[in-house]
Amino acid sequence: MRAPGSDFRRLLTTEMTLQYRNGLYLVYLVLTIFFLAIIALVPAPWRETAVGLVILLDPTFIGFFFAGGLVLLDREQGILPVVATATGGFSDYARPKVVALIILAGTVAAVLLGAATLLGFVRPSLGGVVRLGAGLVLSIPIFFNLGVIVAAWKPRVVEYFVFASFALLPLMIPLAEPLGVATGGVGKVSPVWGAMTLITSVFADGGGVAVL
Question: In 3D, which of 74, 92, 60, 61 has the Cα closest to residue 22?
Answer without folding.
Answer: 74
